[in-house]
Amino acid sequence: MTAACINRIATAVPPHDMHSGFIAFAESLVADGTPRNLFRRMVRQSAISHRYSFLNLVVTGEGGVYDASEFFISGNFPTTARRMQAFEEFAPRLAQSTLDKLALTEEERRGITHLIVTSCTGLYAPGLDYDIVAHLGLNPSVERTFIGFMGCYAAINALKAARHIVRSEPGAKVLIVSLELCSLHMQETQNLEQLLAFLVFADGCAAYLVSAEPIGFAIDSFLAVVLPDTNPLITWRIGEKGFDMHLSGKIPGELRRGLAAGGNQITRGEDIRAIDLWAVHPGGRTILDAVEQGLELAPEALSDSRHILLNYGNMSSPSVVFVLERLMQRACPGQLGCAMSFGPGVTAETMMFRAI
Asked: Considering the domain boundaries, does residue 290 fall inside one?
């Protein structure tokens, strides 16, 4: 059977580092005293230093904050329709800058047979897939697939679809673009749990090429692990003022227990210690701690995931591909790898791979 391989990866983020601006904004909403002190403690423990957005949240000399983009105006936050207009404006820009870094040759562009796009933070039609076809000058008949609203594990599902395509059509060249603008859905709220969720999320894009060419990472297998009785813990719904995210504080504990029980099932019988490359979705510090503890990994095993969390935050679907890009830069032929992302369900989507 033909092996599908991730041949190369490119990543990009928008121009503005929003992390300090968001912290100042959130502090202005949280009541002084215990709630604000708790928020500050969670900021210190977040293990995040930078997050990027097209929206420019500027901290003033007085410790206040304003949105230089005039998108988030206190007391008049945008409707869902306005947020979707912003997605339609900004998403193609980020996709184009990422694809330019992928540096496809004219011959490679002519050879692309399939395009898969993942996003859960915006939609419009004709969509981002059409914009990508136009930007790259792809064959207008390229087969297009959009994977929407799956959350942080969508990239693993896109790779699953790409593998099916390549195994059934060995000459196929599949371009995948995972793009999220999570910052568009920030809310003006005093709900501490919501603000802590927004403390983690950011914007980013990954473009990656999958084919039968034996270069990069060979994809070996996939497994979806659904944790029982966890449906309410992660939800993502369309509201009047953007998309409404709910992340329960119970997620790390459930994840830790689920991974501990799954054990070698996740690595398809391989000894955990035989895995050289761990590409774990950097959903947050407590998420990475739960994976490390549940699978009894060495502290350095998730260093690449922690690096991405520190410098970019949780970008939803592209995040795990950012980690794969770092691993690809240092992987040695023959090394075994396991990629893992988490999302609504609660589901862990996992992928076994090996460096070529």
From this structure: yes
Number of domains in the chain: 1
Q: What is the pLDDT of residue 63?
A: 58
Residue 149 has pLDDT above 80, yes or no: yes
Q: What is the DSSP string of 293-343?
A: HHTT--GGGGHHHHHHHHHH-B-STTHHHHHHHHHHHH--TT-EEEEEEEE
Mean pLDDT, to the nearest integer, of 257-272?
84
Residue 283: give its domain's CATH number: 3.40.47.10
Specify the amino acid at residue 103. Answer: A
- Three-state secondary structure call for residue 221: strand
Structural domain includes residue 123: no
* Euclidean distance between CA atoms 207 and 8, whole angstroms: 9
Asked whether residue 328 is assigned to any structural domain, the reply reads: yes
Q: Which entry of 120, 152, 182, 205 is annotated as an active-site residue? A: 152
* Helix runs in the chain, H state only: 19-29, 34-45, 80-102, 106-111, 128-136, 154-168, 192-198, 251-262, 285-294, 303-312, 319-330
**Predicted local confidence at residue 62, as pLDDT:** 63
Count of CB atoms within 10 A of residue 355's CB?
18
Radius of gyration of the chain (CA): 20
Per the structure block, which two tokens stand in for 270? 């391989």
Q: Look at residues 220, 327, 233 and name the one whose alpha carbon lies nearest to residue 287.
A: 233
The percentage of the chain sitting over the pLDDT mark of 90, rounded to a whole number, equals: 74
Asked if the structure places residue 168 within a domain, the reply is: no
Whole domain around residue 256: which residue ranges? 217-355
Angle (deg, nearest 10), helices 319-330 and 303-312:
130
Give the span between the Cα atoms of 314 and 47, in whole angstroms.
11
63-67: average pLDDT: 70
**Position of tokens 């490390």?**
292
Residue with tokens 């790779």: 159
Q: Is 177 exposed, middle or buried (0-12, 13-18, 19+ CB in 10 A)?
A: buried
pTM of the model: 0.95
Whether 152 sits among the annotated catalytic residues: the reply is yes
CB-count burial class (<10 Å; 0-12, 13-18, 19+) for 95: buried
Residue 61 has pLDDT above 80, yes or no: no
